[in-house]
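ok so for the tutorial part 2 we go from a plain amino acid sequence to predicted structure tokens. step 1 is just haveing the sequence, like this:
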Amino acid sequence: MAPKVLVSDKLSETAVQIFRNNGVEVDFLPEVGKDKARLLEIIGQYDGLAIRSATKVTEKLIASATKLKVIGRAGIGVDNVDIPAASRKGIIVTNTPFGNSITTAEHAIALMLAVARQIPEANQSTHAGKWEKSRFMGVEVTNKTLGLIGCGNIGSIVAERAKGLKMKVAAFDPFLSQDRADTLGVEKVKLDEMLSKADFITLHVPLTDKTRNIIDADAISRMKKGVRIINCARGGLVVEKDLVDALNSGKVAGAAFDVFASEPATKNPMFNLPNVIVTPHLGASTNEAQENVALQVAEQMSDYLVNGAVTNALNMPSISADEAPKLLPFVKLAEYLGSFVGQVTDSPIKKFEIQYDGAVAAMNTKALTSAALAGLIKSQLAEVNMVSAPVLAKERGINVSETMRDKSGVFDSYIKINVETEGNQRSIAGTVFSDAKPRFIQIKGINLDAEVGRYMVYTTNRDVPGIIGLLGGMLGEAGVNIANFNLGRDKPGGNAIALLYVDQPIESHLMDKLLKDGRIKRARQLEFDVS
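step 2 — the prediction. this is what the tokens look like for a chain of 531 residues:
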């Protein structure tokens, strides 16, 4: 029997025909996406669900999807899909991460030019029968400096377009290598330097704990007077109230926003300000982009349902059914190891070596390396999966290598990651015990045995008395329970580390307090996806 797909949002007829051409039965019911009761009633009939943003794939819907094997999102964002619930049910969730990159980049450039020349307000004035030529004095973009926050797939396209406009481009991106910056013709800078020299600033990063409120009153205070800010990435990157204050004071000359902290944005403090341009999240709204992502989702869903090939999966690696039971615990381990490195590394990574020791060296190491890279990059780029991670690593100039070794120690299998940055080297190793649970077994050459938890605290210090008491006391006073506490050192009185598994996130002021004590040299809060 042919697999059956429900298309519950608007997709082009060409995309629907791709399903049929590949031997997939398809019901095109775009009105069902907004009819929760009807969708719940019929979802049990389908092997695949193709959606855009209107359909909300909730835990309740997934529970009723008795046959569903794959959910395909035509677009990048999957906020409308309960991915943990889908994972628990064994349903693959895929997206189309690169289909609208050009469209979004072009929208950012269009908004930059519009805010530079006050085009929307001048247009409105002229339509009203006024001729206020002297009122709308703009600025050229030629020879101005464009500051990029994020120089990944979309940011690099913006950089290329800006160079075509004869702009200078300064990019802040912790994952941007010097080689990649040279290829793009941009100046790689730290955030403070970019803020101080940019005439225009555009944002091209996901919304994560590291990027949330990256533009606030403090950041604005370090900018040039008269700077213009454009955001086509995500709401929440900019503290909107702080921006409004800066717009009213004249510190910021103008802003153009396509995204907002709360959407749909029917009210916002930026609305109706004379020096602000706003659009209703149109970054991906072109015929070409919508067609591209629709065709892509149809192709990859058909390929999975007919041939078993997994492409652009957000919750599963590219793994065959036969090898999955043995490989999946090591996939999770590789992701944790990469995530650890990504969360403790602030400077661009030049080399990424992953070492497979023992039985794991004979497994599907391509999937494992992709999982490790996805974990590494996810700390900076939320829209990354095991398929896109190697491409993104290459774009960032990361030299990736694999090493295979026969069993060399007490473990039947282990994975070790070595990374080299501009002035530092890091290493971490882990294994999977008989209970199929990943463990960290070595950090910076120091042995330990640490269970991986969702929230963890990592510290480095000299091996001196009182560290356990210091960490336990401070966390206890803050009401933070410690589930697991692991220590290690290279020699008595030498370098030491601590890795704590805690029950809840740690407030930033507590991490600062640990460092002020003087005995702790470095402290980082880590978070891992242990679902």
